[in-house]
Amino acid sequence: MLEVHVKTFGDTAFGIVYEGKAVFASNFGVNSEDVLRSFQRMFPIEAPLRVAAEPSAFAQKAVIVMRDIYEGKSTDETVLLALGRFPAYTQRVLKAVSRIPVGYVASYGGIADAVGGGARAVGNVMATNCFAPLVPCHRVVSSSLGLGGYGGGLRVKYEFLRREKQGFTEPNQIPIEGGVLRVFPVEFVLRKLEKKHDATTPI
DNA sequence: TGCAAACCATAAC
DNA sequence: GTTATGGTTTGCA
Q1: Residue nearest to nucleotide C10 (CA to C1')
Q2: What is the pTM of this model?
Q3: CA-based R_g, chain A, Å
């Protein structure tokens, strides 16, 4: 049976749906009710969810990792994701996005070049991503260095990227299974946004 | 800039 | 099978 663990750090709640040592879904929100509601939408009635009375060590670690990602820290901890229920292509996209390092972003089309398919198909996977922010879909932007979209709202995406600045100045290439993924510094996106809008309220 | 047409995997019928 | 649906992209006015 799937279990749920939600924990609030500061003013943000982080939650996972898990079984054993694999995460079936993750999300964050303004409070635990918010996160639980999102899980109920992802897992319709047939899969009953049970809030863990005593979250396993794995569950507690996973939530910590999520908080670290949220805060923009570059963690090398990895959390096992249960991807088996998704189509093969979806799995490839999710894995590729997971490889984008903190401080860099990739475009929808760039991901498509690396794993096959097209940019819109990649966008579809992002739109239905069940693993925010463990799969850092906030690091996927439009080819014109615009923000693209984000389930939680563009403001949230922008704040993510701002916290992830690392001072990189040059594009880079990340080797992934079956190809290379072209990435570029998150500063490229932030600069463009700040130029376009008022520097204080870019969104 | 703005708009239209091409693009591509999925889910729903 | 077919159709509808996007967190896209590119080209062209």
Answers
A1: A143
A2: 0.95
A3: 17
